[in-house]
Protein 1
Amino acid sequence: MKSNTKRKRLLVDSVADRVEQLLVQMTMSEKIGQLSQLQGGSGVDQDILKEAIAAGQVSSLLNEVDLDTVNELQRVAVEKSRLGIPLLIARDVIHGFETVFPIPLGQAASFNPEVVKSGARVAALEAASKGINWTFAPMIDVSRDPRWGRIAESLGEDPYLTSVLGNAMIDGFQGDDLADAGSIAACAKHFAGYGASEAGIDYNTTNIPENELRNVHLRPFKAASEAGVATFMSSFGDLNGVPATASKFLHTQVLRDEWHYDGFVVSDWESISQLSIHGLTANDKESAYEAAAAGIDMEMTSTTYRDHLPDLIEDGLINESEIDGKVRAVLALKIKLGLFENPYTDSKDYEQISNPEYMQEAKSAALESLVLLKNENQSLPLSVSDKKSLAIIGPMADAPYEQLGTWIFDGEQKISQTPLQAIEHLITDDVDIHYLKAMDTTRSRDDGSISQAVELGKKSDVIILFLGEESILSGEAHSRADIDLPGNQVELIKAMSKLGKPVIAVILAGRPLTLSNIVDDVDALLYAWHPGTMGGPAIAEVLFGLESPSGKTPVTFPKVVGQIPIYYGKKNTGKPATDESCVHIDEIDAKAEQTSFGMTAFHLDAGYKPLFEFGYGLSYSEFNYSDLHVNTNSLTIGNSLRASVKLSNIGSCRATEIVQLYVRDLVGNVTRPVKELKGFKRITLDAGESTVVSFDIHTDDLAFYNREMKLVTEAGDFHLWIGGSSATELRTEFSVTKP
Ligand code: BGC
């Protein structure tokens, strides 16, 4: 142990020494060059780019994925520039490279850090084989608004789940050592508050009180910083009146002074030059100043640093020592990545892209991401033996590209396996499959095809509908105000539900859609998110019972869009709603008086509960929770308690349950959420089997930022629940006492 620490110290020292040796030789222009990231790719004039690289004006390129070009440009940097500093080659490798894993929100439904880690590992190996050494992931913006298109790219609504899974993703990308072949630098983005954009409109303003910011939105970033994420990216958003890219509070006070983060921060795409569009600055020079002074180290795509830092230094507004600090962090990463020793990439050093092993991992991830939302009369799994004909209908049944989801620049749709293909492969020849796409896109409004679908349904024993949203409807800049199933899909479901046949709906989408208008029309509802390359086989295996579904919702499903934002970790308010206190709009008497009912926090037309709560998901088996207890009811600050529950598989098949532990701090210096996730475990049990599941909770896990913005654990009473979703009622209590 000791010698390991010593070795690490030596390594750190040698990185620092090497950085200083370079820094003393650098001109100011070369230093500023190390703070500049430019676009690569086919639209860029290669001669101009090479000239700039040779002149030491470029530190990093994004979006160049042609390996020969990458190697050639690295050669210019290493052999033609004065100091031979190699390039960082960046790309948005978000949920896979060529082999696409489920969208991050889907991966989050697995509640499985190993799934997330292996997805990132495969992505890193594939991307590294193309010379990429830096990805812009994970996106760890806590996301509580499904209208926001980028919720697809998030790990959901919960800060703890996002922290655990975000760190797993960092681990997968960065590996044991950044210098290893196949390790690429990760980037925690978007710092900070981006996910809280008003009305779920991408890039919109965010207003988040500091206490909420620290207790919710910053938590995954703090965790990423502690986990050693190589870089951070600033957010596009205006946070409390100051665009995040110009926020000294975020980048200097919190990130550097409080968290002692020693990686570097890249701006988002032109987010420095956009400071003047926000109305914070009058011109690019002021923008460069604001961003540099706030703590942004590298500028993505715009050139305000290159154009104006020399003058800002000359004017004495920015110190040379500030520039040196930024350059140090960039050079340190290049050294840690081993780029000085190995600047070039030989794809032969890597396994074949999309090899069977990677595809298998993508399939396991897709399997674990599937969430069974409804299963009336055990309509699922389907037994092929008594079904002689299946109607497979819908625009997402055989859509190799659309099932991949957002951010799939390098995803290969030719290797995508669709649900239709997988079902055809899985079932025997004596079952007839009637397939109809029915709608050109999920947005189509052509009534004719509904009657064709009805005819097909009549001829079939069971109807499986593949619906949802195609890729383009979620992701960056793709927010929606109405998150019902688009186009004629609702009408299609309603028409099929009248046929008296079992109707199974499989939804492939980039966000939780509002489903209350169709949930009663289907017998079973399987949520597949955008499941990636191997989505088809994963879905088929669950539909036909080769696997039991095990995913749980990483985000609340609202009944209607007007409930947004709706999330489980809400505050109690002074007038919390209960089932008894809610009155529906249809039940209100004529001339009822204002105070005659209600007077609690709910909507007259939607109540106070969501359609599906956070952490919810069914299985083909059934789990029972009992004997919840804690090993001590009184916990002194600085210690841990052990909470245990007996979990029994009381159903008829082997299945996996995601056991979740929640707490509530009953009284706080600032009000605390009604429930907070503090632990989760995936437990697989055979039918009839039971086990005891335990969690250790330390008083540090109960800490929160108080009114003085101090991270404290307060003495007092707590509730603790363990169960299969955030609505679990199995509860015990404990108190925290001062030492
Ligand atoms: C996005 C970032 C992304 C960057 C580079 C921006 O528009 O907000 O998340 O990493 O582009 O592609």
Protein 2
Amino acid sequence: MFLPQLLTRLEQGEKLAVLTCYDASFARLMAANGVDILLVGDSLGMTVQGHATTLPVSLEQMVYHTEAVARGAAGRCFLIGDLPFGSYQASPEQAFHASARFMAAGANMVKLEGGAVMVETVRFLVDRGIPVCGHLGLLPQSVNTTGYRAQAREAAQAEQLLRDAAALQDAGAQMLVMESIPSALAETVTRQLAIPTIGIGAGPACDGQVLVLHDILGLTEKPPRFSRNFMDGAGSLGNAVQGFVTAVKTGSFPGPEHGF
Ligand code: KIV
């Protein structure tokens, strides 16, 4: 699936349901149950590989999982590949070489973490035909500087996030993930930007919601409080995925219990 189809869904008033996905079987299941976007997230470092952070994940590993997901989805979902730590921060050229690997593996877009510091890289990629999704708020690849804490709770940080979001869009980013920020701030960003916003722990106003697959299936020992276990009472993996999609599309997820 290509970006224009996603944008049509948004124009028709639909919210976008996004899940992380790491293999072909789940990609098939998600495609069959209406997930709009599959994010091959570097969270696989934790969910699949058992690491404590996303930092050890390599570009080779991400490309391998992207190929598997692309085979399973077979063009039925939009596919985002997550640039892993160390594969894009050094220079725009480094980011281009890494992104080209994702696009060849079947991704429709790449995601990278960071605001103003990434603007030159985003422009470089977009000018060379690579659609980019930004990622602001809690940045898991910066865990060693910020920890896993909600972000932008103070006015100065919130203003910086607003500037970063606008700068990413101006540089050509075509989507923005916002993680663990106040709902009101996510709502302001969503109103100010023309590109779709996808929230995770960012309240209900975003254009779409993303969750980590293992969290919605109840496989995570300490899931984040903004997530929900959709496996509870679902009876099958397909029903759990469909439950998530329905909850996002009808606006019953995230509920008031997930607000900041
Ligand atoms: O890697 C990942 O799963 C992500 C989401 C948390 C947005 O980047």
